Amino acid sequence: MNIKRREFLLFFSGFAGTLALSSLQSCNLPGLKSSSKSQGFNFKPVKGPLPVPTDGIVPAQQIAEYSSYEVLDDLVLPEGFTYDAIAQWGDPVGDSRFGYNNDYLSFIETAPDQGYLAINFEYVSPEIWMQTYPLVIQKPLPLEEVKTGISKASKGESATLINAFALADNNPLKAQIQQICEEALIDQGLGVISLRRTPEGQWERTNSPADRRISGISGLKNGRYLKATGPGVKIFQKQQMQGYRDELGDRIIGTFGNCAGGTTPWGTVLSAEENFQSQVPEPVYADGTSFDPGELPFDLAANNLDGQGNVFGLAGNKYGWIVEIDPTDPNDYGTKHTWLGRYRHEAVGVRVASGKPLAFYSGCDRQGGHLYKFVSQGVVTNPTDKANSKLLTDGQLYGAKFNSDGTGTWIPLIPETAIDPQLPSQLVGNLISLPKRELPTSRQGNQRQGGYFISDRDEEIQSFKQQFKTLGDLYIGNPEEKQGAILIDAHYAANAAGVTCTARPEDTIIAPDGSLYIAFTAGGSAPEGGPDNRIFTGPKGETPYPFGWIFRLKEDGNEPASLSFTWEKLALGGEPTQGGIGFSNPDNLLVDSGSNLWIVTDMSTGGLNGAVPTRVDDSGQAIGLAKQIGIFGNNSIWFIPTTGPNLGNAYLFGLGPMECETTGPFLTQDERTLFLAVQHPGEANGIRMNGAVETRQFAMITTEGEEFIQTRQVPVGSNWPTKQPNDPPIPAVVAIRRLDSQPIPPGMTSI
Predict the structure, then answer these.
(1) Residue 157 pLDDT
(2) Is 682 helix (H, G, I), strand (E, B) or coil?
């Protein structure tokens, strides 16, 4: 019996032993071959590439059933379900177009069977975007001309970088770079489209006046600037500053890197700017102002398109925020609330209760990133009142400190907070990044202090603590300006304050009981840091552990503003025989009206279906866990009941097309439609030409631990969503529904 599995069931059940244990035993019985519908379940799970306890195949038959497997370039759903593509990259939206790499979705219903769908557009996948842009958008990009121009300007054929911001405005190369970056930034940001459902259950666009795009260059092209609130505004408005000024004050040109998000009870949508550091400089000076755009040059290569903000002179400190929009207001082009902090945001868990402060949770998606909570100064009167947005303009940002005993505290990110970083020896990879305040040799006499340094020695941390006592010692300005600078530099300030370094928190969602589910996607290390090696361990204490976790955090007293909490691991990614639940790298989470948990996965494109012909190397030693990701196949959708006879079991609901990520699941109020974003199909190999397929070998393990070899047929590239030969792969949003028009979650009845 797997004790981790038992703990998982006990966590979900809320009952003492009997129900949870009986479910556990039925799941693990050697002869298990159950019908989902016989358990009150309304779909038969999809068969994935990996044997799992819920696939309905007894262990004795798993080798025969799984010795060969065919991967499909399609969104694969259970029998009785279908999907309709309702919008895809390049479709008209207002005076612009539907963007690339659609991610978080939010459907704001305005009447029965109609409403507004808000969509995040995260980034452009460089190689496949450049390959397919002329086919989809029907116009060329001056890619080769720019590559040649960069080489000539750099006097080197292999050069790919150039500070386009410093080029003269009349330089033809600058104009060509602007054209490429403009198109790439148009394909990022936010979108709003109006929809209605037909009597047949399909959704169609209605193209209302509120349909619009908020892109990476909205303000630059048409004056539709984004607004800002909170202490960060004081930094944007400063006249005397250490760093770069874009001359726009508190106006912001656009938004990009929009990954996950959240929806408020009052009908606004919160969009999380994540990997902004690829397009503008992330580090800031001690006063919170930006590094010069030239610090992150434009970079164009076969598989790279970074520094898109360089040529436009975008100020880096204005990106990395949470953006709020009201989809129903055609004149709302977004507000960035700086009290929520600037970092590589993923998701927003919104907790709202009458008579209590708002609590918003979010994570920083990087190795060593943190879990954050914002608590409003004011309290909620009516959860559905749009005036609640004003509560986001004043409050306090905290970072979570996880203790090994299952307790934790919230550390305020304020000037008075003591300096107490984690030690490198406590972190996977033994690295931590901290605000840099020593003057570099090249700048003697120059008072510009900023950026960060990386420490790999515990002794260096002790010296840092002796030199700086509080966060206020690391930042400059009056009290409000110091607070703004701390929020702008939130990740590095949180490191300095001792907030726990975690394992890529990619989603935060409020459970029905008020607790918080957190998806930690992967526990490796990166050049800037890694997660706490005492908290983020595998089922056998392994670090690094690449397959991910789902945690539950419960505030003490169940109070949103509590400064202490308890936490526990809800589930682990990985193979069932190793203590995992059957998937790898959990990402977006969804809780339906029956409290069931839905999970989509975020395995990196390079690992999808990567051959694993053996689990040992030439010396007979087991290969690293990270090299085994390929066994899990394509990214997927999972369903976990939290009550009833199937509680705690993980059922495979869907598989994505080739080389894609399935993101942003969102159920309509009647739960008859599941909106889903299919992001970057074909990201690794581009257009699938002439039905190309490869045969790959995988060393697999049955649910009872017996080893066998699987021969897997893997399409090379993608033609989704048309699925026509040699068509370009295109990101798209789909609406999933049952053919009988009943609600999607098991156990629901028609509304």
Answers:
(1) 66
(2) coil
- pLDDT of the residue at 16: 27
Handedness of CA 93, 347, 287, 395 (dihedral sign): positive
Instruction: Answer yes or no: are the C-beta atoms of 663 and 717 closer than 8 Å.
Output: no
Residues whose CB falls within 8 Å of the CB of residue 255, separated by 6 or more in sequence, listed in order: 188, 189, 190, 214, 215, 216, 218, 226, 271, 273, 319, 323, 334, 336
Return d(Cα 11, Cα 30) in angstroms, integer: 24
Predicted model pTM: 0.93
Question: pLDDT at position 645, please?
Answer: 84
State yes or no: pLDDT of 100 exceeds 90: yes
What mean pLDDT is predicted for residues 86-104? 98
Task: Look up residue 500 and give its two tokens.
Answer: 């726990």
Q: How many CA atoms lie within 13 A of 511 on its CB side?
A: 20
Q: Check residue 3 and give its pLDDT.
A: 31
Rounded mean pLDDT, 723-727? 98
> Where do runs of H (alpha helix) occur along 429-575?
458-467, 479-488, 490-497
Beta carbons within 10 angstroms of residue 79's beta carbon: 8
User: Would you call 575 exposed, middle or buried from its count of C-beta atoms within 10 A (0-12, 13-18, 19+)?
Assistant: buried
CB 93 within 8 A of CB 213: yes
Which strand ranges, in their side-by-side order, compose the sheet holding 661-667?
Answer: 81-88, 732-738, 674-679, 661-667
Joined tokens for residue 134: 């002329």
Q: Two tokens at 356? A: 């209590």
Q: What is the pLDDT of residue 746?
A: 79
Q: Is the peptide bond before 172 cis (omega within 30 degrees of 0)?
A: no
pLDDT greater than 50 at residue 749: no
What is the residue extent of each domain of the chain? 33-95+610-751, 99-260+274-334, 341-591
